[in-house]
Every structure is written in structure tokens, then in C-alpha cells.
Amino acid sequence: MKDRILEIMHYQGLSRGKFAEAIGIQSSALSHIENGRNKPSLDVAVKILQKYEYINPSWLIMGKGEMLLNSVPQAPPPSLSPPPLTSSPDLFSQIPNQAPQTAPSRTNPPQRPFNSPKGTTVVENRREIGVEKPQIVAKQPVEDAVSVKKSESKKVDKIMIYYSDNTYETFIPEKIRKD
After folding, report:
1. Tens digits of per-residue pLDDT, 40-61?
2. How many CA atoms lie within 13 A of 107 on its CB side?
């Protein structure tokens, strides 16, 4: 089914992204189908058949028959045919002997909005709001004292210090000799 989907995509002359957008799925989903990571789901097949009604469902799903239904003439899709030649000017060309239009002056009366009834005009209700500069307050560092409770029954056996370069040192106190 993957190959038939690719054949439809090529028949339409669309890239992966444009084809995915046309049938309403994510481009990544179509990429996964194309690369064989995922198999096409029934939802993908239905979306293709809804978009391109001239595709034979039996051909798409089971590979039986022709790609196009019998009632559709086998002409190239519209995207592959050359655009019709027209003699109309493009948007940026000007008609000869016509002065270019100037921008409306600021003395023109205000225009009415697109969806408003006739006789209404746009009134601008703007005002400036003063913004105060934020005050920066320096926070005092918190200092906590470390207190060590001395206990007769507990003694330090060893001290290990770990460094940022993933090394460490171990310190073992020497035993006090009794004289």
C-alpha cells in the first residue's frame, strides 16, 4: 500500500509535505509510512479516497485493478499541465497614461470599518499609561551556622571529598597514641 500511496503522490506532482497537507495528515506520519517505519492506517486510506475521489479504492487498499476509476479520463492532473497564457497585466504594472495613485492624505475624514453599518466612523480611543520603573532590591545572603554536636560514642572514621573532575580524596584520621 505504501508504494501505491507514493504513486498517487507522484501522479499529483506533490511533495511529501504538500501531499500530507492535502489529505489532512502530519508530514511526519507520511514520512514514517514512506520509510517503512509505520504501515498506512485505514484513516490515511480514507482521507486519500475522500480527497481524490477518482482513485480506485480496491487498487489503493488491495492493489487490484487500475489506479483510476473507469469514469475518469486519464489526463495529467492540473498541477502538471502548463498554466494558461493570459494577456492581463500583473499586479505591479500600471496602465499607460495613468498617473500613479497617491497615498491618502491625513486630512481625509476617518474611514468606516469593513463590517460596520453606513454612517459610522472609526473613533480612536487611545491614552498613554505611565509605567513606573521597577525598583531593584538587593537580597541579603542567608548565612546559617553549622553546629556539630560532640558525642562521646561517635568518632570520625574517614572523610571523602569529591571534586568536579570526578576524582576524590579520602582522609583517615590517625589514631591518637597513648603515652
Report:
1. 888 988 998 998 888 888 888 8
2. 0
